[in-house]
Design brief:
By secondary structure, this protein is of the alpha+beta class. It has four helices and four strands.
Amino acid sequence: HDRKIYLGDTVVDPARLEQMLQSNARVQKDKEVYLQADRSLPYGLVVQVMATARRAGVESLGMITEPEKELTSR
C-alpha cells in the first residue's frame, strides 16, 4: 500500500494537506470532506489526516467505506 494522500485525483504531500484544503474552494464553501482510507493504514495516520482537515476549517468529516469483500462473497 502506498500511503499516499489524495485530494480528489491529485496526490498531496502530507505537509501541504492543510494548505491545500484551505485553498480548495469547494472545501471552504461546503466545510465538508469525505475520507477514504485503506483498512491496512495505521489508525494514527488516519487520525492525523482528520485533525489536519479540522485545522483547515472542515466541520463535517465523513468516512467512505468499502463493502466487506469476505461477507459479499459467501
